[in-house]
Write a structure and sequence with these properties.
Layout (H helix, E strand, L loop, with lengths): L2 H42 L1 E6 L2 E9 L4 E5 L4 E5 L6 E10 L1 H9 L2 H41 L2 H24 L10 E5 L3 H5 L2 H6 L4 H17 L13 E7 L7 H13 L3 E4 L25 E3 L7 H8 L4 E3 L3 E5 L2 E5 L16 H18 L5 E3 L3 H4 L8 E4 L6 E4 L5 E4 L21 E9 L5 E10 L5 E8 L18 E2 L8
Parallel strand pairs: 3-5, 7-8, 8-9, 9-10, 12-13, 13-14, 14-16
Antiparallel strand pairs: 1-2, 2-5, 3-4, 4-6, 6-19, 7-17, 11-12, 15-16, 15-20, 17-18, 18-19
Helix pairs in contact: 1-3, 1-4, 2-7, 3-4, 3-7
């Protein structure tokens, strides 16, 4: 190799080393900007803003899943999917001005008057937070760059990186901002606080487009919680709405009765609907488990599941407040129900049970009988979706269970299908956590219009944690509640699973 070739090779190698060194330095500058910006937001990205009778601390935190969180300690948190940017906007009630709160309690109309100014208060608080966030992130990244590099230009580069990312995230948040998300909160905290914190479903439905008034109502709810920490306020009654507590697959878990009773009291439900599998084996020894139904102070509508025997059905029917449905229509709590038991009894290995196709055929016959009867049924209750599938276009709402995980879909002909999870955590089998995590205790409170019988909204409730003292409540507003049923031209809705645990019948 000639001397000139060696020199050219050395030059190229040196140039590559220079380029690699520059790339490494700029990578460090970018990383320092991101880390410094995060530290700046963590330390200085908070402002305190008066909103109504409360002083609210707003904070801005980087987070992959964008959301707005309202901390209503000591009761829990409300989370709203308001945007898709990697930023978490958190609001915490830091102080309640008692004079303003007492004035609001003395004059309920003041909540509505407060709506006119709460939007401006909120905008002022968010604007101040953004300005402070920019300053905090820029200063944090600048200081981090100076400490690491001891070079002004590299520190400026880190600050520019931080501000660019923050500005891009803010622009994405503004572009994807969804104010109507306040109508569908997720509540996490003490189960006793769930109805009061999440608020009244019928009020949310009626004010869906009135964002400022909803904000005012939310502030009012939180203020009342602080005023009445020792005695929680009674959940507001409304004769225009019928509350239905949907439970299923209790599977002989005695803890379920405490949960059901607590939810029934806290939400002021008018009727409880159980879509089957009350027991595990359907044996005579398990019949006494149904006696707990009598302690519930509202009607208890029940259909037989695959693990319930005819003896179980007779034990339930013996309870004074129980309404057993097995191929019949009954009016309960202002709603017209149709229900039918599952034709199978799986614990008996000697019994020849119907196949899935035969169960589906039975469901078709039952749906046809309801359609031909001329009776307008509001809710159909069955144990499995196999038996219930044929009711699409026959009734507006179908409640089932069996699968131990909650899901929902809108049928092609306009029927809403709600599959409930296990309100018993799948019974004693739920103690086996080999699947990765325990099966949650699940139930739903349904809000139906008393005049039309149509579903307006629902609260999906998941219970878990030590001693079952924590809960997550997620509000869902029913789109187009008065849609026609029997419209075959409708596009089917994709099924939504609310949990990911193994099914178990």
């Amino acid at each position: 190799m000639s001397w000139g070739a060696i020199r050219a090779y050395d030059y190229r190698e040196a140039l590559d080393r220079v380029r690699a060194g520059r790339a490494w330095r700029w990578t460090c500058v970018v990383v320092a900007g991101l880390v410094g910006g995060w530290l700046g937001l963590a330390l200085g990205g908070q402002v305190v803003t008066p909103i109504g009778p409360a002083d609210v601390t707003f904070s801005l935190v980087p987070q992959w899943h964008g959301e707005t969180v309202v901390d209503v300690a000591p009761f829990g948190q409300l989370a709203f999917d308001t945007h898709r940017a990697p930023l978490r906007l958190e609001a915490t009630i830091s102080d309640i001005r008692l004079s303003a709160a007492e004035e609001m309690f003395a004059d309920p109309e003041s909540i509505n008057r407060m709506a006119a100014g709460i939007g401006e208060d909120l905008r002022a608080g968010v604007t101040a937070l953004l300005v402070r966030g920019v300053l905090a992130a820029g200063l944090g990244s600048l200081v981090t760059g100076l400490v690491l590099f001891r070079n002004v230009w590299r520190a400026v580069g880190s600050a520019a990186t931080s501000l660019t990312v923050l500005a891009a995230s803010g622009a994405l948040a503004a572009a994807t901002f969804n104010p109507s998300a306040i109508a569908e909160p997720r509540y996490t905290g003490l189960i006793a606080g769930a109805p009061q914190v999440v608020g009244s479903a019928e009020d949310v439905v009626s004010r869906f487009t009135q964002y400022q008034e909803q904000l005012a109502g939310l502030v009012g709810n939180v203020s009342m919680l602080y005023e009445a920490t020792s005695t929680l306020p009674v959940y507001e009654e409304d004769e225009s709405v019928i509350r239905v507590l949907h439970v299923s697959d209790i599977h002989l878990n005695p803890a379920s009765w405490t949960i059901i009773g607590t939810l029934a009291d806290q939400y002021g439900v008018d009727v409880i609907v159980d879509s089957g599998d009350l027991t595990d084996r359907g044996s005579a020894a398990e019949d006494a488990f149904a006696d707990e139904i009598a302690d519930l102070e509202v009607p208890y509508v029940w259909v037989r599941g695959r693990h319930d025997s005819m003896g179980t059905q007779r034990a339930v029917a013996a309870q004074p407040n129980a309404v057993v449905l097995d191929g019949e229509v009954r009016e309960v709590a202002g709603l017209t129900f149709y229900g039918a038991g599952d034709p199978r009894f799986t614990p008996d290995a000697t019994r020849l049970n119907p196949t899935a196709s035969e169960v589906a055929e039975l469901g078709e016959e039952q749906a046809a009988s309801v359609a031909d009867s001329g009776v307008e049924v509001d809710v159909a209750v069955l144990h499995t979706r196999t038996q219930a599938r044929a009711f699409d276009g026959v009734v507006p709402l179908v409640l089932t269970g069996d699968e131990h995980q909650r899901s929902t879909r809108l049928g092609v002909e306009g029927t809403r299908f709600l599959v409930q999870g296990s309100t018993g955590g799948a019974g004693l089998g739920g103690l086996d956590h080999s699947a990765g995590r325990p099966i949650p205790y699940q139930a739903s409170v349904l809000y139906l219009d008393a005049e039309t019988g149509r579903l307006q909204a629902r609260d999906d409730i998941d219970l878990g944690g030590i001693g079952l003292t924590s809960a997550q409540v997620e509000r869902h507003i029913e789109p187009d509640p008065d849609r026609p049923v029997g419209d075959a031209g409708r596009e089917p809705e994709e099924e939504v699973d609310a949990s990911a645990v193994p099914s178990g019948g």
